[in-house]
Predict the structure.
Amino acid sequence: MSRDGRLLRACVLAVVGLGLIAPIALGLWQTGRAAFGILPALGRTEWTLQPWHDLAALPGFATSLRLTLVTGIGSTLLSLLLATGFCATVHAQMTPAASARMLTPFLAIPHAAMAVGLAFVLAPSGWIARVVAPLAGWDRPPDWATVNDGWGLALLAGLMVKEVPFLLLVMLSALSQIAVAQQMAAGRALGYGRGIVWIKIIMPQVWPLIRLPVWVVLAYALSVVDMAMILGPSNPPTLAVAVTRWFTDADPAMLLPASAGAILQAVVVALAVALLWSGEGLARRLGRWWLRRGGRGLSAEPGLWAASAGVAVLLAAGALAMLSLLVWSLAWRWSFPQLLPQSWSLEPWATAQMGWLRALGNTMLLAAATGTLSLTLAIAWLEGEDRGHRSRTRWAEALIYLPLLLPQIGFLYGLNVVFLRAGISGGIGAVIWAQALFVFPYVMIALSDPWRALDRRMLHAAAALGAGPWRRLWAVKLPILLRPILTAAAIGVAVSVAQYLPTLFTGAGRIATLTTEAVTLSSGSDRRITGVYATLQAALPFAAYLAAFAVPALLHRNRRSLTGAAAA
Amino acid sequence: MKLAALALSLTLATPALADWPQTLAAARGQTVYFNAWGGDARTNAFIAWVGAQTEAQFGVKVEQVKLTDTAEAVTRVIAEKAAGQDSGGAVDLIWINGPNFLAMKEQGLLHGPFVAGLPNAQYLDLGPTSPASVDFTTLVEGMESPWRLAKFVFTYDSARVDAVPDSMAGFVDWAAAHPGRFTHPDASDFMGATFLKQALIELAPDPAVLQQPVTDDAFAAATAPLWVWYDALRPNLWRGGETFPENQSVQQQLLNDGEVDIAMSFDPASTAAAITQGLLPETARVFVPRGGSIGNISFVAIPYNAAHREGAEVVANFLLDPATQAQMQNIEVLGSFSVLDPAKLDAAAQAAFAALPTAPALPAVADLGPTLLEPHASWMTRLTAEWAARTTR
């Protein structure tokens, strides 16, 4: 390994260690201390379990916990089920490019914007109800809790609208590494039904490839705040929302039980992941027995169709939600039971111009900064691996996934305390740093596989022609990998735009982004202005994805092998 | 006690009235730094208008220091006092509210009493229980001058509702006749808490105790009828009273969507304003319970070390001018209700108010009924905690 390669690796490790792991660890430590009564700022310096007693005694605590478990675990398992069924049904009929095109809008739109749209589509006075109204003879909306319902069903559905496309994408990319057609043919020839082949042969191979993303989905669903505030129940809300409210309570003494709640949130995620893991072990044992029994069971087909129908309904609801954002932003009066606005206007865009221009500016600045930072770091990491001729160690993999598996609320409060001490809280720098904690992992995950799949013979040829490691990086790797690099950047932009809690906490509420504004406005009286912000919020990542498609096509228009997904 | 203090403040202040020409002379050429919450574009525009008027009429410029929180101005004055800067302070005039006023008054950070010395104070009702004399149960004693009125009102859609409840007690029957068509914001929200306070004032056996700091016994006695009333009301609320809108804005949206028939606000003009913004149907209207509703007045105060005290007094006086108040009440300008006592206005001033553009949804001052005093702040804390314990499972 060259000296310069070692230096690069050391640099990357130092940046990741100090910039990524240290803040999270310090944040967790601060939150953990407060959970056990240590909060010097309030003059609390003694270890005690009182915060936990206080937490358990808060009104609605048990309900909050139950809601979190039901919506988090329920949405993940249902999404997994639907995505699997859908894959089994349509995998043979759809090219990867077509499915990517279909899924991109759903992946690009931030959770908060999707939630705002769904809240309108599902509400008793919303779009679906307006379609039904003339048939059912409603002159006023029914008094049904179709959003913010006490069971969290609207939140569950909202999470699924975002999770199913993500899982589909992950599964489709995993399936590209498996000889599905041959195995299916062999299975069918042996008399197994299509669904059974899928369950017995394909899925056991897919699972190890999608295990980590499923954990990320599970952790996210259990600790989501913005979507739960908009679609979830409010009295009491889910645990993550309740904890966020306690952290921002006017009474600073609430910080102690809030910290206990934040730690509990982390424990809940850890337990849920452990549950999934043990479930996997059980399934492995039962599955082997089931496989060896050799049952042909043709009856899985209706299940597959039901799953596909479920996915179609979810995607349709998501598409309607996105459309409703745009329509609302162009409406003037749009009252129940009108299907379309009675009057249209650009007024919402004009009146809120000062606000959204500033929020858009902040959002773009943050996205550009975190995207560039994360991309540079990811490329440096991968290049360091290349030069060291090493593949990634398991602990390094775990390091990357850590910020995605830990609930944000678990360490963001503590992180902000650290930032406050360092005197950087409330500034744009602090927000960039906090967002990068979540942007970097996604960029890294998106870039790793294409980077490793790069045809090494190109590099050997370049080396044989006398190109050093830097020249090989600039002249060969980066141009060939332009498309996956831009895709990773677009994912980074989407993640950055969607960040709510990190922006809110470390920005001290002073850095207004499209997401923080959209979430705030969603509890206001003007759905049209909310529509403006949510539309922009969805448009920004979408534009980034478009650029990731268009730029390589344009730059490499005379390099046929580089325009397509050759390296991706 | 209250009366004695008031009398004292009046006697102390009276000489100032004679000095008014001197004040005007001293104020000429000053620039008043008006520290005011800057979150509302219409209010900011109104303050800019005030500055243009005072500059033209009295040679006093107004520079608005736009605050995100009034406490910022209080902190600045405290810091100046700590630094020994007892004159030439940076803050000349503050738009102030209850707790901040109490803090500044207790720490001797305010100039005054000066209100009775303002010529336009003659149009105010400064009686001992008038909202112009008591700010969140703190006696004003001439240390701050009123400028705009906030008053609790209900909004309803007249296209869907024939008869509205005429008292808080009446909401029980109304909701029983129209199940699911009424709700109130979550009591952790200011407006939700105000709804409960409004009911508490009407239902408490002895409303006078609400002006004192809360005690366990007083709370139990005063709120017992409230909870009986609420338990009867709640099952017929929107979504069975299991969930509540987060704040008044969300409830206004529910009213706009037709999910409920009644919403509430702390600004009698907000309904008319919302109609012009397309946020409520043209048929939305305002009502208050027969016995009146909770109100409070926004004040301006002058720090003890203000660099431009005379200019600040001129601005405070200008804000009380009937013409200024009429301009402020104009729905096309700010739509904030006048703090003046209509009975004390001369014919010309009354005509100015009568000539204001009206909107069908804009209530007349006479329709708003008496203004009830806010309970002591400690009641609100207890009330919201008790509500949360009762409704959150």
The interface with chain A takes residues 160, 179-181, 186, 238-239, 242-244, 246-250, 252-253, 256-259, 274, 277-279, 281, 388-389, 391-393 of chain B (CB under 8 Å).
